[in-house]
Amino acid sequence: xxxxxxxxxxxxxxxxxxxxxxxxxxxxxxxxxxxxxxxxxxxxxxxxxxxxxxxxxxxxxxxxxxxxxxxxxxxxxxxxxxxxxxxxxxxxxxxxxxxxxxxxxxxxxxxxxxxxxxxxxxxxxxxxxxxxxxxxxxxxxxxxxxxxxxxxxxxxxxxxxxxxxxxxxxxxxxxxxxxxxxxxxxxxxxxxxxxxxxxxxxxxxxxxxxxxxxxxxxxxx
Length: 221
What we know:
The structure is a single chain. Helix content is about 35%, strand content about 25%. The protein has a single domain (about 1-220), classed as Spore Coat Polysaccharide Biosynthesis Protein SpsA, Chain A (Alpha-Beta Complex). β1 (about 15-20), α2 (about 25-30) and β2 form a beta-alpha-beta unit. The strands form three sheets. Strands 3, 4, 7, 8 and 9 form a five-stranded mixed sheet that branches. A two-stranded parallel sheet has the order 1-2. The chain has helices at about 1-10, 25-30, 50-55, 60, 80-95, 150-160, 175-180, 205-220, and strands at about 15-20, 40-45, 70, 100-105, 110-115, 120-125, 135-140, 145, 185-190. The chain is α/β, with parallel strands linked by helices and about 220 residues long.
C-alpha cells in the first residue's frame, strides 16, 4: 500500500511523513531505505487517535517552507489520479482555502458529512461512534489538503480542546472539518468513483479494491 501511495503522490509532494506504531517502526524504516523517496517517520507510542497522529508531523511542517500539507490514511489506495490532480489544482488556485477535500456519495456510509441549508458542513457522523447515519450519505475520502496556517495554527487550536469519541476513546481528526468550516473557507468536490472512499481494513475490502484497481489499470493500458 505504501508503494502504491508513493507512486500516486509522486510529483505532488516534496516529502512524506509516515506515522507508525512502535512495533512496526524498524520495518517501515528499512522499507523506506529501499524506495529512494524522501521519507520521514514519526512514532505514535500510544494509539490515541488520528488527530494526535497527524500532529506528530507538526515540527517537520513548521521547519519546512511547505505552503500546503496533504494528509491521507495509508489504506486509501483506491484514490484516483484525477482526484489527486483536481485536489492539487484547487489547492493551488484557491490558496485562501483552509481545507480542500474530495467527498463521495454512497449508500450505507461509514462516515457522513452533515450539511446545513447553505451547504456548510456542520457535523460529522461516525458509525463506529454509534451515530445514526442516513441510508445514503456523503463521506470523506481520507484525503485532505490543509493550508500551512490551518495545519500549524487552526489544527493546534482545535486539538487544544478536542475531546475523545464516546465509543472509541480516541481523538479523531474528522471533527476538525465542521470546526474549521465554521471559521474559514473550505472547498469540497466530488471524487471520480465512490469506491475511492473505501479503505483496506478487511479481506473483503482488499478484494474489492484490488478488483477496482486491476480494472482501472486495464482501461489505462
